[in-house]
């Protein structure tokens, strides 16, 4: 007990302090880190999400020109799970960095997520009216404001890292983060994936390989950018950054597969966005290609393969990453913590 | 003559080598630098534009996913004057830096110019069919491709500086450039200005102050970002960077005033874009507020005030900046070198 108490971070200390029914203690800190009795993902997430929301709020103060900042804040600060920015923090902590170092890249990735949602909902893209439980940005502010505020969030992502990370970490790391974010979001990453995705609509012959490519570009890139930038900010070495990159790609794809599953199995209210969209638009999606159960199994398999990449890390420090990966195949939409 | 021959850069050596009619030589290198007989802006521009075009071509190779890169290249490589990227190079050289150091930020600014044109022409913005003498991006590739390829150019601008400037200049300078570009393009710069501009359409009471704000945000920011990043890349000190910032703001505003003038006085063919647009959309513009001649005079005054900021610099090194500012109030659209 003494060993666990001194070697585990506070988030891994036993949650239930009652001694009425003594529980068997894990044999080691490693086992404790992987036990749900000794680590609460919900508590970890909730503390980090609060931190991220505060930083996002501060990153885009309401100032002139008023309307563009209102529109940016509307989408950026809408209630959301913030799994991806938390992943940046957890990756930073996994390599031994402090939480504060990961906040700038965590915010940057969340800004680009908001931008991708704003643009995805535009009439010339998916033409959607609801996002994160509220009217989509162009429904609330008009189309040209949605276009411009989305771009402003993209631009701010890079600026934010350059301005806010620079005093905390060496300039070389900031430059690596900017380059990484650019590769993740750009024409060979998220934006290229959005275009391939859009053009695949209504195509009858989209196979698993193409779908995997689209999902990796569109979604897994966010997970990857977050984990890699978090690790860079925290001072991770090449091997650590490489492992977390693989971990995040798999977790990201697992998340997206579950997104497809939830699109089929949930109501719009549960999702906070229009449900059944993929089916309605005859869009290729995992449940269509491998059935709902097959897709669930694939998501679980991806999560297990992600966890394998964590073997190198100090188990207590990597505990949040372990539990995050494991929680994704079990997620149930809006209410779940992943 | 010997003094001039050894102290002037090649671009300042006399253009006409004929000795048939000996001309009076300027009394000093400073005078030579400001003499049009001893400096050809056209030759300087043409050499730099070639260098910039080559770098832009290499920056966006045609690769999968094919369509987004085709669309990016279509707008980025369309024939253009490239005044702004050349300004980045000239500013770098004015502080004593080599041309090569300014190429990455020069390309970055040109990428964002292309992005702003693509998005400006979209149906939800100005809904324009022609740009730089060819069908606008969404007319050629469709609306969603135009949206995404514009964003990809914006993202690439930051990535390009991080990847290409980093081996040439210290990381601290790269971080400063990324922050500067973000401020110039973002919600308080170009993108915010585009929104205020769009919202001012049809408003009867747009005054000179508001118009100046719109033009400074929308256009002068590009000049400012280019000059400042060029100076940072070249290793300029705070005083030099500050002077070039002021110089560029004035040159940028002068350029935009002349743009308004040309919109009224030229044909679409001369401009390479739809002429008379501002009048047709009842958009506030300088000729409307101060008359064509008044606007021309204002542009000339701004250029003179820009030139005042160059007093600090070595005249031969600052010669391109001097001549560039002077050429702007005389520009005549597509064919002119400014």
From TrEMBL, chains A, B:
Its cofactor is Mg(2+). Belongs to the FPP/GGPP synthase family. PROSITE patterns: POLYPRENYL_SYNTHASE_2. The lineage of its organism: Eukaryota, Viridiplantae, Streptophyta, Embryophyta, Tracheophyta. SUPFAM superfamilies: Terpenoid synthases. One of its GO terms (cellular component) is cytoplasm. Coiled coil: none annotated. Pfam families: polyprenyl_synt (PF00348). Pathway: Isoprenoid biosynthesis. This is Geranylgeranyl pyrophosphate synthase 7, chloroplastic. It comes from Iris pallida (Sweet iris). One of its GO terms (biological process) is isoprenoid biosynthetic process. Keywords: Isoprene biosynthesis, Magnesium, Metal-binding, Transferase. GO terms for molecular function: metal ion binding; prenyltransferase activity.
